[in-house]
Amino acid sequence: MKLRACKKARGYQVTAVDSKGWFADRLILAAGGCAGRKLGGTELGYRLLEQLGHTCSPLYPSLTQIKTEPTWVRALKGVRADGRLSL
Q1: Average pLDDT along the chain, 87 residues, taken 10 residues at a time
Q2: Alpha-carbon distance values, 18 to 1, 4, 14, 64, 85 (Å)
C-alpha cells in the first residue's frame, strides 16, 4: 500500500492510494526496513518519514541477535499473516 503523509498545524493527514485517508494527532510508524528484502522490506518507511520532515542518517547493513524462547519461535518459521489494527 502506498501512503502519503502531510504535517498539519495540529497533527498529520495520512492518505492511502486506495482510501480517502485519516487525520491523527500523532503517528507511530512501524514499517520495517531494507534489511528484510526477501520478506518484503523496502525503504518506503524512510521516504514517508522524509515527507514529514525527518532526516535519516546513512544506512548500513548489520546483523542483530534477538534472544527468545526457541521452542515457540521455531513453530512460527515461514508463517505470514495479514492483519488489521485499530486503536
Answers
A1: 78 81 80 67 79 78 71 79 77
A2: 8, 11, 12, 35, 17
